[in-house]
Structure formats: structure tokens, C-alpha cells
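User: Here's a chain of 344 residues. Predict its fold as C-alpha cells.
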Amino acid sequence: MKKNLIYFIVLIIIGAAVYFFVFKKGNSTLPINEKNFAVEDTASIGKIFIADMNKRSVILERDMNGGWLVNQKNPARAEAISVLLKTIKQLSIKYPVPETARNNVLKNLSSDNIKIEIYDLNNVLINCYYVGGGTNDLNGTYMKTLDGENPYVVSVPGFHGVLTVRYITDEEEWRSRSIFSLPLNQLKEVSVHYLSDDDSSFIINVVGVDSFQLVNYKTHMQINPKQASKDRMGMYLSLFRFINAEGFENNNKNRDSILMQQPFCEIKAIDVRGNIFTATCYYKSVSRETLQQFSNKGEPMQYDVDHYYATINDGNDFVLIQQFHFGRLFQTIDFFLSNQLKIK
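Assistant: Prediction complete.
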């Protein structure tokens, strides 16, 4: 009985020692200079530099308003920044790369990697590591710290996949796709001009949060307030709070030829400070990717009915827009005079 008690006490002592040296000592089986991938306090991060082996790189920096800028000039997509910060915070080592695979993984990392530099709010480097490809089961990602000699398989708890895709080096993938981001209390005027149909075009002046004027675009005469629906104008103007592009098309090889065509619509919003935001819209020809290739009569479609092209940001950016989202702005003046209550 005493012998069993002694064994039991010895086991407790061994267990306590293992707990102390492995957990209390910070998992000392991993060298201190190469085990820290995660940055738990992401609020302390002021800048993130991401670069790949193809000489593509981006700098993400906090701005004065608490948002983020891409390469010191364009607003970043909030949702993309959120995903990256959560990834940086939750990085967790699954296991060191086995000795038998170490050299091969290091070789791959040296020839194909994404470098991450993380700086604090004072522009001091607080972390730096390399991100490689995924494991064979696609449930881990090879990483190595800047000063570390050994690669590790790293993951985010609860996420199944390869983390490499979260470290984007394409500037346009990071950029905000916002076209109009104007709450009603910031709007002064909205105009919709169909270049081949002035009679369908219109202007809405915002007099107050609940007071609007509908104006004939062609004559610039105000429509009798008794004939214009205040509710429909308010509902329409509320859309300008959140209108995004589907994606940037600045590198589209057909951009110049498309812009030589006449646009079919120009939508302009002016805010209370006098800033002007314009989207000039062009038809998109049917392509292999177009879902609807034929009309209901079986005739080949000339234009894509689900997508359009547009220029935004003073014409500096060429983007793809969706009928499902952006198309809600394509109303005519009759909409505000009819009994139709729902925006298409």
C-alpha cells in the first residue's frame, strides 16, 4: 500500500515538473526567437508590410480617423483588414516541421514566400515572419520567423485551410470598393442622367433630412411637390449610404476601347461640403462568363444584363458593377411619380 502511495506521489511530482517546464516556461521546446508568430494586441499595430517574391508589395497603415490606407493613398477594405488582424492575432503553432521534411520546406520557403513585417503605432518593428505554402492536408501553413532557423506548421484555431491567401500583395485587392458612401444627412444633391434619354433623367435636391425636391433634368424645373413621392425619394437617397463596385478592372485589356464608347448613364452625388462623387456607366458586352447569353426569344444577347463597367474616383478607376446591387440606382423620373413602391 505504501509502495503504491510512493509511486502516486512520484507521478504527481513528475506531472508538476512537466507542467512547469513546458507550460510555465512558455513551451521552451521552441526557441524563444522563432516561436512568436501571433501579435495578440492588434490595437497596437500601426503598419503592416506584405511582400511576395514577384516584387509585389503593399503597405497597410492606420489613418488619423482609425481606418486603414493602402500604400499611403487609398482607403482599405474594412472587411479585409479585419480578417488580416484576426489572423495575426490568432496564429498558433501546430507543430515544428519534422526533421525529415525540414530541408525541403526551408528550400521551398526560400524560393516562394510572402514576407510580413508588423510595426507598432510608433513605427517600431514588433514582428516579422515568412509565410509559405500549405501542408498536404491543406490544414496548416508553413511559416518561419525572420531570425528563426526552423519552420513550423501554423494555423488559426477553428479555420480549415491555408493562410497564405490572407496575406494579399495585390494593391487593388486591398482597396475599398466604395463608390458612394453618403448617409442622407450628408447628401446635398443626386442626379441621374441617361445620355440618350434626357426625359427619363432627374435631379433630387436634399433640402432637409425629410424634405426633397424632384427636378426635371432636361428643363431644370422643379416637379410639383404634390406629384412627387417624398417616400420614394427618401428611400432612393438612402441607397447612397452603401454602394460598392464588384471589383477593379484597371488592368482590363479592353479598357481603352470600352471608354471610347458613349456611356449610357452618369450618376452624380454631391455632399454637403461640395464634394462630387461620380459613376459613369458603360454597357458590358456579352462574354464567355456571361450567364444570360440569349434573350427570352432565343436571340443572342449583345450586352451583359447582370454587369456593367463604370469609371469612378474622377475617372481614375475602372470598375465592374452589378445590376443586383448598383442597378438599384438606375431609376427614371417616372418612378417618383408612379404608384410603384419598390425599387427594382
